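User: Please predict the structure of the protein below. I'd like the answer in structure-token form so I can feed it into my own downstream comparison script.

Assistant: Understood. Taking the following sequence of 289 residues as input:
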Amino acid sequence: MAYKGITFRKELHIDQIFSLHYFEYMSTFSFPGEAHNFWEFVCVDKGEVTIGAGDAVHTLKKGDIAFHEPNEFHWVRANGSIAPNLIVISFSSKSPMMNFFRKKILRTDDFARNILARIITEAGNFLEGRLDDPYQTTLHTKSSLPPGSGQLIQLYLEELMIYFYRKYSDLSSVAEEKPDKPDKTVRENIDTEVFNRIVSYLGQNLSGRVTIEKICKDNLIGRSQLQKLFSKKSGLGIIEYFSQMKIEAAKELIRTGQMNFTQISEKLGYTSIHYFSRQFKKVTGMTPL
């Protein structure tokens, strides 16, 4: 039997990224502006900002995402009272589909925010240095990184653009469009994906002392939503869940017999062997020994 394959048509392609930031501006921050020959978008994760796009001025609130086309002069400033959290990503694409995004300000929904969170999470694996430096003009990749990290960022960006195009291209007035209310199945699928992504994030940070604030910032999720999600999925608070993950990792290390308790304690980020022992007994009901 002869098989004949189908070649996929690349309708939208991201060629390069030039900046990828997630940071909290000072409430008094003001950027005078710039223009460059590639695309850029700014998404408000918290608070609000005022932006300039060519001759137009807009106020962006939480959930708004604004696109700046190549060579469009743009600027941003905080409102003086709220320190907004912003996602800023710039990239090049010659795909005709990108013409749709000229002069566009859209609304993100849960699905889009989930893609953005995956981009930020993967960027932490892929890029050297901090993601909260808005003045960084040159990106550097890490010398050692998980397989496919750069490709995943590219794919997630392409998925985000295609999702927005499908969602908004048939609307006569984007400004009046109301976010879709996800049905129960879609909501459950999104919750599961977010939960699994955060569990993976915790697993990658077992040696650290993460806080709820850091978890929220790195995963683009609100504190109350995070707590509700972990209560629903695990019956535990996020910190309690993280503590149990650490203890499970400690049990595996103990069973291998390759480290003593002090080394295990240090590897898992505990402040002392005594604190490690107390936490171990609290979770397991027995001492490490």
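That's the full token string. Strands lie at 16-24, 30-34, 39-46, 48-53, 56-61, 64-68, 74-78, 85-92, 105-107.
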